[in-house]
């Protein structure tokens, strides 16, 4: 989370229009730790079919009745449509998150971002806002260095281990920001950022959303919550927010309404944002995700228009 602690809601409104050609290219309280991985939600079993009534007796002259067709077995993955994982939806998801994290729809321009925004999490860097104080940046650099020893960030691993869980820059200044920017020009490090984003945030959000019976919008709502709050079971982490929502409404997988459940989740999410960061701008919930929900756009289908931190964005 980069901008939430810094950006004032009074920023003058600006409209950003994304032209399709601009997106071409290859494909971040009590519990502040973001790297705790959520347990995979179990899929609810399909309800058993009721037994058929006994067939009526037939006379000797009657022809045997046609045997009822056997119900078709669901295809692999049926009931778990691609949703947010479909390439077009995933692109939109990255754009919406980038509008909140970086104030732009050009999410691919964030690989080299690095800054201490004063939120108590040390340096925030890269594609999804990996932080030196929340373990995900350490995990990223450690995995990358094992695959690519001798990279520009490898010398900072000892310092990254020491400052993990704090906002300290000890051992990182003055060279770490320049090293991050330099390594972010390397395609392999960009790919490593993509992979870490998917492993820690995107894939778990899609998986948990599918298990709860949510469509693309619900899966995105889970994704943005994981990015901002991180995995974990604390009251203001993802699982804590989800648990609070489920006390107010049933998920679609439990037989509840999708809109009612997502409303409850966004209520719990907004509360957690304020508890963790008093005075925080909650527009990434209020005038972005809640707007899509009020419009009935459970499939998160463009065209989309939203406001975050005083700026207006549009995906045609």
Descriptive labels:
316 residues; Chitosanase, Chain A, domain 2; 3-stranded mixed sheet; 3-stranded antiparallel sheet; mainly alpha; disordered N terminus
Straight-line distance between termini: 26 Å
Question: What would the CATH topology of the domain at 119-183 be?
Answer: Chitosanase, Chain A, domain 2
- The number of helices is 9
| Low-pLDDT ranges | 2-80
Largest sheet: 3 strands, mixed
Strand/helix succession: EHEEEHHHHHHHHEE
Give the amount of beta strand, in percent. Answer: 5-15%
Query: What is the spatial order of strands in the main beta sheet?
Result: 1-6-5
CATH class of the domain at 119-183: Alpha Beta
Helix and strand layout, with pairings?
Elements: E1 15-17, H1 87-101, E2 114-115, E3 124-125, E4 130-131, H2 136-147, H3 157-163, H4 176-183, H5 187-211, H6 216-229, H7 238-248, H8 258-276, H9 283-294, E5 304-308, E6 311-315
Parallel strand pairs: 1-6
Antiparallel strand pairs: 2-3, 3-4, 5-6
Helix pairs in contact: 2-5, 5-6, 6-8, 7-8, 8-9
């Amino acid at each position: 989370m980069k901008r939430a602690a810094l950006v004032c809601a009074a920023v003058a409104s600006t409209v950003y229009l994304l032209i399709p050609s601009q997106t071409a290219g290859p494909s971040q309280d009590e519990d502040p730790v973001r790297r705790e991985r959520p347990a995979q939600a179990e899929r609810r079993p399909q309800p058993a079919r009721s037994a058929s009534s006994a067939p009526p007796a037939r006379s000797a002259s009657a022809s045997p009745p046609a045997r009822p067709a056997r119900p078709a077995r669901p295809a692999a993955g049926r009931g778990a449509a691609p949703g947010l994982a479909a390439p077009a939806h995933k692109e939109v998801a990255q754009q919406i998150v980038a509008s909140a994290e970086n104030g732009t729809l050009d999410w691919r321009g964030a690989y080299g971002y690095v800054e201490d925004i004063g939120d108590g999490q040390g340096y925030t860097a890269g594609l999804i806002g990996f932080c030196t104080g929340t373990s995900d940046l350490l995990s990223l650099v450690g995995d990358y260095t094992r695959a690519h020893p001798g990279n520009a960030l490898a010398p900072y691993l000892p310092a990254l281990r020491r400052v993990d869980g704090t906002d300290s820059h000890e051992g990182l200044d003055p060279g770490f920001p320049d090293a991050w920017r330099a390594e972010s020009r390397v395609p392999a490090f960009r790919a490593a950022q993509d992979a870490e984003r998917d492993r820690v945030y995107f894939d778990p959000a899609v998986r948990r959303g599918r298990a709860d019976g949510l469509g693309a919008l619900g899966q995105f709502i889970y994704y943005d919550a994981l990015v901002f709050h991180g995995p974990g079971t604390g009251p203001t982490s993802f699982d804590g927010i989800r648990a609070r929502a489920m006390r107010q409404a049933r998920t679609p997988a439990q037989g509840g309404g999708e809109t009612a459940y997502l409303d409850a989740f966004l209520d719990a999410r907004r509360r957690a944002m304020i508890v963790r960061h008093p005075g925080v701008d909650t527009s990434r919930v209020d005038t972005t995700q809640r707007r899509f929900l009020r419009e009935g756009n459970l499939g998160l289908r463009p065209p989309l228009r939203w406001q975050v931190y005083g700026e207006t964005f549009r995906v045609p």
